[in-house]
Write a structure and sequence with these properties.
Blueprint lengths: L1 H52 L56 E3 L7 E9 L15 E9 L7 E8 L5
Antiparallel strand pairs: 1-2, 2-3, 3-4
């Protein structure tokens, strides 16, 4: 009877040790996925910003020079023009405002997958900002636009948010 209690005690101790080890491995695996997802998300966000910055500043600057900010696309009209249904057809920075795309055709989000992680969701926003304070949105057109790209993924604890400023150089 005494040995049975010792064996049961040893099994309980072994069970507690195995559970602790499993929990530690799970925490390390979760941290590893979060790190991998964050690195991929940063790459995706930077690639998106690079793509957007290669475009013309505004629909109205594609064929001519603009000298007055009021000649740019109005704030409430930022986004793709008629016929620009995908990023392949976008020709200026503000076409990416509220850029998203899902299977229903509604521009909601784009889902990106990698060999080890999937379901990265990219969302983009383009806004006019104050020329003296680029952190403040402007209610009117300016020579400055801020691009904000947000990337999320289920394994990430926090979304990756990257911002870039695009400036229209009217005198060059």
């Amino acid at each position: 009877m005494g040995q049975t209690i010792l064996v049961l005690g040893a099994l309980v101790l072994l069970g507690v040790a195995v559970l602790a080890a499993n929990q530690l491995m799970l925490e390390k695996l979760t941290a590893s996925y979060d790190t991998q997802a964050t690195v991929v998300a940063i790459s995706l966000a930077q690639a998106e910003i690079d793509e957007i910055q290669r475009k013309d500043y505004d629909e109205h600057t594609i064929a001519r020079r603009i000298y007055y900010a009021s000649d740019f696309t109005p704030v409430d009209s930022l986004g793709p023009e008629a016929g620009e249904t995908s990023p392949d057809l976008y020709n200026d920075v503000d076409d990416y405002n509220e850029w998203k795309a899902d299977n229903s055709g509604y521009r909601d989000s784009i889902v990106v997958s990698t060999p080890t992680l999937d379901n990265f969701v990219e969302k983009c926003r383009v806004e006019y900002v104050s020329e003296t304070d680029p952190d403040s949105n402007s209610s009117t057109q300016t020579f400055y636009k801020r691009i904000t790209v947000t990337v999320t993924q289920p394994s990430m604890a926090y979304p990756v948010v990257m911002k870039a400023l695009v400036v229209y150089r009217r005198y060059f």
